[in-house]
Design a protein that fits this description.
The complex is a heterodimer. By secondary structure, chain A is mainly α. Chain A is built from 26 helices and 2 strands. Chain A folds into 2 domains: 543 residues, no CATH class; 29 residues. In chain A, strands 1-2 form a two-stranded antiparallel sheet. The relative contact order of chain A is 0.07. A two-stranded antiparallel ribbon of chain B has the order 1-2. In chain B, helix 2 runs antiparallel to helix 3 and helix 6 packs antiparallel against helix 8. The chains are: A mainly alpha, B mainly alpha. Chains A and B meet through strand 1, helix 5, helix 6, helix 25 and helix 26 of A and helix 5, helix 6, helix 11, helix 13 and helix 15 of B.
C-alpha cells in the first residue's frame, strides 16, 4: 500500500514525459486530457492514501541515488502530517488549474510543450513536498526552477518573455546556492541529509552553526518565494500564460520556500537570530509588496505583488514560531490566489486581451460569474472577516503580537499596516476592473475574435476555488470557535510553538483587523469607485517600478559582472596571455629544436624522427600561414 | 578473471586495432564511402569490446588491476609494453569508445575533404587516447601521448574552420611545450632510478619507488604537472583551448573536450601523484586554488562569448576546474566526484559540441546574435539541445549534478569555504548556459526557410548519449562502483583531511 505513494510522483512525471516525447503527435484534446488525468489521479490518490500520514507518517524508499563513502541519498518519500496536506493542496489546486488550462490553451498549437512542462512542474513540486531527504528536495527545488523558466518563457518568439523566464531561473538560482551550501554544511556537521534525522539531531549543532544554517536556508527560501532581496523575478513572471501564473503563485514554486522552512522548522526554530531574520524578511517583504501593488496598472502585476506580500506574511509566521500559522495561510492563500489568477485570465479575455486595469471597467455586467468569483477571491485577499484569508492572516498577526516584546510588536505593526494596504489595493483592483463603464475605448474595435464566449471549463473551475477560499477558515478556526484549531491539532509538534494569548486579546486584534479592512475599503471606494486617470508623480513611478529594484540590481550586480567578464576575456585571456604567447612561442620553438638535438643521442631513433616530424609539420603550417593559407 | 583468457593481450589489441583500422582507411582511399564504413565498423568494434569489458569487469572493484599485460618491447632501454586496466581506466576507456563513435557519426556527411585521411587520423587518435589511459610504462605512455597530439593537430589544421592554422599551431605549441618538459622529467626519473639500482626501466611500478636525489622531485613533478595542466587545462594555461575547440571540426571538438582534457587529469592521477607523492601533496592547495579559479574564470569568460562553440569551449575550462578542485581537496567523496565528473563532462560536453555542429550546419553560423528560434524550426533538435544544456548546467537528476554534488560535499568537508565557493559556481554556470539557450533556442526564427529536423543518424548519436546522461544522473553507482576504492585510496595517499569517519 505504502508503495503506492510513488505513484503520486510518477503520475505527473509520466504524464509530462509522454507529452514531452510524443505529445506533438497527439491531438490537443488528448495531450491536455492526459495532463489533467495525470494530476487528477495524483490528487485522488493523495486523498485516498491520506490516512498513511497519520501518526508518525509513512516512509518509503525506492532506489539509491547518490552514494559515496558515508553519503547515502536515495529516492525516498516521507508522507507525514506536514507533507500530506501540502501534497493534497498541490495536487488538488493543480488539477483545477490544469482543467482551466484546457480552455485557456484551446487555440495554442504548441500544446504538448505546455502540458509537459505543466505536469513536470507539479512533479517537481511534489518532490519538494514529499522528499525524505534534502538532496531529493533539492532535485525538486531545481526542477521547479527549470519548469518555471520554460513556462514563463512559453511564448518564446517574443524575446521579452524568454528574458523573463531567464530572469526567474537565474535569480532563484542565486537563492539555490544558499540552500546548496546549507545542505553541504548540514552533511558536513551531522553526516546525514535525511530530514527527520536532521530535525532530530539539530540540537547537536553549535549555536553559530545553527544560525548560519538557518540564514542559509532563509536565503534559499527567499529566492524561490520571491522575498526581499531576491523578489525581482516574480513581477516579470507574468509573461507566461495565465495558468502558469496561477500555478507559480498558488500551488507551486513560491510556496516552496515557506514549506522548506516549515519542513525544517524544528531545526530552524533552535536559532533565535535565524527566526528573527525570517520574521523581519517576511514583514518587510509583505510591506514592500503591498506598497508596490498600490500603483500597478497590469492586473496580473497587482496580483503578483500581492503574492509577494502574502508570502511575506507566511515568512513572518515562521519567524514568530507559528509554522502551523504559516501552513494555514499557505493553504487558504493557495485557494484564493489560484482563484484570483484564473479569474484574472477570464477578465483579460473579457476585456479584449487588455491587461491594463485603468482601461477596463464595467466588467461586472459582462460576466456575473467571473465577477462574483473574483470578488470572493478579493474578499479573502483583503482579509474581510469570516473569509479564509481573514482567519489565516489574523492567526499570524496574533502570533506575532502575543510574543510580547518590542521586536515582535514592531513586526506586528508592519503586518497590520500591510493589512490595511492590502485591503486598499485589493478594492482598488475590484473597483477599477468591475465598476463603472468600460474604458477600453482606445482599443481598435477590430477585436471581434476576442468576443468569443469564454470556454465553460474556464468559468466553472472558479466556483469550487471560491468556495474553498471563503470557507478556508474552517481549516483552523481560532480558539473559542466550534471545531477550533483543526490544523494545529493535526500538525501537532510539527506546527511549532503554541500561541499563548488570552481570548480578550484575540478578539481585540480581530477587531483591529476588521477596522483596518474597513478603512482600506472606504479609502478605495473614495478614490477609485469613480474612475480618475492615474497620477504620474515621482512616488507613483517609484512604486510602479517596484522601488527601482531592477535598476539598482543592474548597477549593483549586472554591470560589474559584465565588466569583470570583459576584463578576463579581452584583458587577460587575449592581451596578457595570448599576447605574451607570441614571444614565448618563438622561444619554445627554438627550445624544442634544442631538446630534439640533445635527445638524439639518448633515445631510440624513432623518437628522434618523431621530433623531427613534428618540427617539419610545424614549419609547414607556419609557411602556409605566412603564405596566407 | 580466471575465465578471461589472460594469455590474449586484450589491452594491446584494443590499442592497436584502431591503428589497423587507420591503415585500412588509407588502403581504401579510393572510396570515401568505404572509409566511412570502415571507420564506423572499427569504432563500433572497439565500443563493443569496451562495453563487454565493462559488463564483465564493472561492478564494485578493489584497487588491483582488472587486466594487466606486460610484453617485451625495447630491451636495450628497459622499455616494455606494460598495459593495465583498473576501475578508473575502465570507465575512461568506455567513454573513449563512445565518443569516437560519436565523432565518426557526426562527421559522416560533414567532412568531405580527404575523407580517408580524416578517418585514418580519427582512428589513430583513438589508439593514442586508449594507449594513454592504459599504459603503465612511461616511455610507452609518452609515445601514446604524442600519438594523440599529432592527429589532433592535423584534424584541426586541415578540417577546421576559418582560423584553423592559428588554432592548430597554438594547440601544438602549448601541448608540445608541456610534453617536452614531461619527456625530460621522465628521463630524469629513469636515469635516477637506473643510477640507483642499476636497473634501467620505464615501468611505473618500479619508478614509483625511486628515491630521487635531494631537490629533484619538485622540479620533475613540476614538469609533469605543467604537461598535464596544459591539457586539463588549468588557468592560466587554458588559452589554447577555446581556439582549438572552436576551430576544430565537430568530431575534433567532441574528442578534444570529451577525452583529451581527461588525459591531463588522468596523467596526474596515474603518474604525477604516485611518482612524486611529496611534491604532489605540497601542490594540492595550489591546485585547489587554480581549480576554483578556473571554475569561475571559465564561466565568466564563457558568458562573454558570441560564438556558441566558443562558449561551450570555455564552459569546459569551468567544468574541469571543478574536477581539479575535487582531486585537490583529496577527500574520498570529492575524489570519487571528480572521477565521475570526468565521465559526465565528457558525455554532456561531447553532446553539446555535436549539437552545435548540427545547428551550425543548418544555420551557416554559430553566432548567438544570428541564431535563435531553433524551437520553432526543429523542435526535436531543440529538445535535445535543451536537455544537454540543462545537464551541463547541473540540473539534479541529470549527470553533471551527481559528480558536482559529490565534489562539493567532499570539498566542504575538507575546507568549508572551498565547498561554498564551488557551490556559488552554480549561478555562473546558469548565467552562461541560459545565455546559450536564449541565443540558440528562443526568439523568432531568423528566416522563413524550413529546416530539416533531426535525421536518423543524428538521433542515433544523441539518443544513446541522452540515455547515459539520465542513467548517470539517477543511478551513477553503475559507473561509480568500479572506481570507488581507487578514489578512497587516492584520497588517503594524498593525505586529505576529513576522510570517512
Amino acid at each position: 500500500m505504502a508503495n503506492l505513494l510513488y505513484l503520486l510522483l510518477l503520475l505527473p512525471l509520466v504524464g509530462g514525459l509522454v507529452n514531452a516525447l510524443v505529445g506533438m503527435r497527439l491531438s490537443r484534446r488528448l495531450s491536455g486530457g492526459l495532463a489533467v488525468a495525470a494530476v487528477g489521479a495524483a490528487a485522488a490518490l493523495c486523498l485516498w492514501l491520506y490516512w498513511l500520514a497519520d501518526g508518525q507518517g509513512t516512509r518509503v524508499s525506492l532506489l539509491a541515488w547518490l552514494e559515496s563513502a558515508d553519503l547515502r541519498v536515495g529516492f525516498g518519500l516521507l508522507f507525514d502530517r506536514l507533507s500530506a496536506p501540502m501534497a493534497l493542496m498541490v495536487t488538488a489546486v493543480s488539477t483545477l488549474i490544469h482543467l482551466y488550462a484546457l480552455g485557456y490553451m484551446r487555440a495554442e498549437a504548441d500544446h504538448a510543450r505546455f502540458f509537459a512542462l505543466l505536469n513536470l512542474f507539479v512533479f517537481a513540486m511534489l518532490c519538494i513536498v514529499l522528499a525524505d531527504n534534502l538532496a531529493l528536495l533539492f532535485l525538486g527545488w531545481e526542477g521547479v526552477g527549470f519548469c518555471s523558466y520554460g513556462l514563463i518563457g512559453y511564448w518564446y518568439r517574443e524575446p521579452k518573455n524568454a528574458d523573463a523566464g531567464k530572469k526567474a531561473f537565474l535569480v532563484t538560482r542565486v537563492g539555490d546556492v544558499f540552500l546548496a551550501v546549507a545542505l553541504l554544511w548540514l552533511f558536513a556537521s551531522l553526516g546525514t541529509l535525511d530530514i527527520d534525522a536532521l530535525n532530530a539531531r539539530a540540537g547537536a549543532l553549535a549555536p553559530a552553526a545553527l544560525t548560519g544554517i538557518s540564514l542559509l536556508l532563509l536565503g534559499g527560501a527567499v529566492g524561490k518565494s520571491a522575498q526581499l532581496p531576491l523578489m525581482t523575478w516574480l513581477p516579470d513572471a507574468m509573461a507566461g500564460p495565465t495558468p502558469v501564473s496561477a500555478l507559480i503563485h498558488a500551488a507551486t514554486m513560491v510556496t516552496a520556500g515557506v514549506y522548506l522552512l516549515c519542513r525544517l522548522f524544528p531545526l530552524v526554530s533552535l536559532s533565535a537570530a535565524g527566526l528573527q531574520a525570517i520574521a523581519l524578511v517576511g514583514a518587510l517583504t509583505a510591506f514592500y509588496g503591498a506598497t508596490c501593488a498600490l500603483r500597478q496598472r497590469e492586473i496580473k502585476r497587482v496580483l503578483a505583488y500581492s503574492t509577494m506580500s502574502q508570502v511575506g506574511f507566511m515568512f513572518l509566521a515562521v519567524g514568530v514560531g507559528a509554522a502551523s500559522g504559516a501552513m494555514f495561510h499557505l493553504l487558504t492563500h493557495a485557494f484564493f490566489k489560484a482563484l484570483l489568477f484564473m479569474a484574472a485570465g477570464c477578465v483579460i479575455a473579457l476585456a479584449g486581451h487588455e491587461n491594463d486595469i485603468t482601461r477596463m471597467g464595467g466588467l461586472r455586467r459582462k460576466s456575473p460569474l467571473v465577477f462574483w468569483s473574483f470578488l470572493a477571491g478579493a474578499l479573502c485577499l483583503a482579509g474581510v472577516p469570516l473569509t479564509g484569508g481573514f482567519f489565516s492572516k489574523d492567526a499570524i498577526l496574533l502570533a506575532a503580537f502575543s510574543r510580547g516584546d518590542a521586536f515582535h510588536w514592531s513586526v506586528y505593526g508592519l503586518g497590520a499596516l500591510t493589512a490595511l494596504l492590502t485591503a486598499l489595493y485589493t478594492f482598488r483592483l475590484v473597483y477599477l476592473v468591475f465598476a463603472g463603464e468600460a474604458r477600453g475605448g482606445e482599443h481598435p474595435a477590430g477585436h471581434a475574435g476576442h468576443d468569443q464566449p469564454l470556454p465553460r471549463v474556464m468559468r466553472w473551475t472558479l466556483p469550487p476555488l471560491a468556495a474553498l477560499g471563503l470557507a478556508g477558515g474552517l481549516l483552523n478556526l481560532p480558539a473559542g470557535w466550534p471545531m477550533a484549531g483543526l490544523l494545529d491539532g493535526w500538525l501537532g509538534p510539527l506546527g511549532g510553538a503554541e500561541v499563548r494569548a488570552s481570548h480578550a486579546l484575540e478578539l481585540t486584534l480581530m477587531g483591529v483587523a476588521t477596522a483596518l479592512v474597513l478603512v482600506g475599503w472606504l479609502l478605495a471606494r473614495r478614490w477609485y469607485a469613480r474612475f480618475r486617470p492615474p497620477a504620474q508623480g515621482g512616488l507613483d513611478r517609484f512604486l510602479l517600478r517596484g522601488w527601482m529594484a531592477d535598476r539598482a540590481y543592474a548597477w549593483l550586480w549586472v554591470k560589474p559582472y559584465l565588466a569583470v567578464g570583459w576584463l578576463l576575456h579581452r584583458g587577460v585571456d587575449e592581451r596578457l596571455i595570448d599576447g605574451g604567447l607570441d614571444g614565448a612561442a618563438r622561444g619554445i620553438g627554438r627550445g624544442g629544436r634544442l631538446v630534439a638535438a640533445w635527445a638524439t643521442g639518448r633515445l631510440s631513433s624513432y623518437l628522434t624522427a618523431l621530433a623531427l616530424g613534428l618540427g617539419a609539420m610545424l614549419a609547414y603550417f607556419l609557411v602556409r600561414q605566412w603564405a596566407g593559407g | 578473471m580466471a575465465h578471461f583468457h589472460a594469455d590474449f593481450p586484450w589491452l594491446l589489441a584494443l590499442c592497436a586495432f584502431p591503428l589497423l583500422g587507420a591503415l585500412a582507411c588509407l588502403a581504401l582511399r579510393r572510396s570515401d564511402a568505404a572509409c566511412r564504413v570502415a571507420g564506423l565498423v572499427v569504432s563500433l568494434v572497439v565500443l563493443g569490446v569496451c562495453g563487454w569489458l565493462f559488463v564483465l569487469l564493472g561492478g564494485p572493484r578493489g584497487t588491483g588491476w582488472l587486466l594487466h599485460e606486460d610484453l617485451a618491447w625495447i630491451p636495450r632501454l628497459g622499455a616494455r609494453l606494460t598495459l593495465g586496466l583498473d576501475g578508473l581506466s575502465l570507465v575512461l576507456v568506455l567513454l573513449t569508445a563512445c565518443l569516437v563513435v560519436v565523432g565518426v557519426l557526426v562527421s559522416w556527411r560533414r567532412e568531405k575533404r580527404a575523407v580517408p585521411l580524416f578517418y585514418a587520423l580519427l582512428l589513430t587518435l583513438e589508439s593514442g587516447i586508449l594507449g594513454v589511459f592504459l599504459s603503465l610504462d612511461l616511455l610507452l605512455f609518452y609515445l601514446f601521448w604524442e600519438i594523440m597530439l599529432i592527429p589532433m593537430f592535423f584534424l584541426i589544421g586541415i578540417w577546421g574552420h576559418e582560423r584553423r592554422v592559428y588554432a592548430a599551431v597554438k594547440f601544438f605549441l602549448f601541448t608540445l611545450a608541456g610534453s617536452l618538459l614531461m619527456l625530460l622529467a621522465i628521463l630524469g626519473v629513469y636515469l635516477a632510478h637506473g643510477h640507483q639500482t642499476g636497473e634501467y626501466t620505464f615501468a611505473l611500478a618500479a619508478l614509483q619507488n625511486t628515491i630521487l636525489p635531494a631537490g629533484w622531485a619538485p622540479w620533475l613533478y613540476a614538469a609533469f604537472l605543467l604537461a598535464f595542466a596544459v591539457k586539463v587545462p588549468l588557468v592560466p594555461l587554458h588559452t589554447w583551448l577555446p581556439d582549438a575547440h572552436t576551430e576544430a571540426p565537430t568530431a575534433g571538438s567532441v574528442i578534444l573536450a570529451g577525452l583529451l582534457l581527461k588525459t591531463g587529469v588522468y596523467g596526474l592521477i596515474r603518474f604525477g601523484f604516485p611518482l612524486f607523492p611529496g611534491p604532489a601533496r605540497d601542490s594540492l592547495p595550489w591546485l585547489a586554488a587554480l581549480g576554483l579559479a578556473g571554475l569561475f574564470w571559465g564561466a565568466w569568460v564563457a558568458f562573454r562569448q558570441q560564438d556558441a562553440k566558443r562558449l561551450v569551449a570555455y564552459s569546459s575550462v569551468s567544468h574541469m576546474g571543478l574536477v581539479v578542485l575535487g582531486l585537490a581537496v583529496a577527500t574520498p567523496i570529492a575524489c570519487e566526484g571528480s572521477f565521475l565528473q570526468m565521465l559526465n563532462h565528457g558525455l554532456s560536453t561531447g553532446a553539446l559540441f555535436a549539437l552545435v555542429g548540427m545547428i551550425a550546419e543548418r544555420a551557416g553560423t554559430r553566432r548567438l546574435d544570428e541564431l535563435g528560434g531553433l524551437w520553432a524550426r526543429a523542435p526535436v533538435l531543440a529538445g535535445f539541445f535543451l536537455f544537454f544544456a540543462l545537464a551541463a548546467m547541473g540540473l539534479p537528476g541529470l549527470n553533471n549534478f551527481a559528480g558536482e554534488f559529490l565534489v562539493l560535499v567532499g570539498a566542504f568537508r575538507a575546507e568549508p569555504w572551498l565547498g561554498a565557493l564551488g557551490a556559488a559556481g552554480m549561478v555562473f554556470a546558469a548565467a552562461y548556459m541560459l545565455r546559450l539557450m536564449q541565443g540558440v533556442l528562443w526568439g523568432p526564427p531568423r528566416s522563413a526557410e524550413p529546416w530539416r529536423d533531426l535525421s536518423l543518424r543524428e538521433g542515433l548519436v544523441l539518443a544513446p548519449l541522452a540515455v547515459l546522461v539520465l542513467w548517470l544522473g539517477t543511478h551513477p553507482a553503475t559507473f561509480q562502483d568500479p572506481f570507488r576504492e581507487l578514489a578512497r585510496v587516492l584520497a588517503a595517499s594524498l593525505g586529505g583531511a576529513g576522510g570517512a569517519p
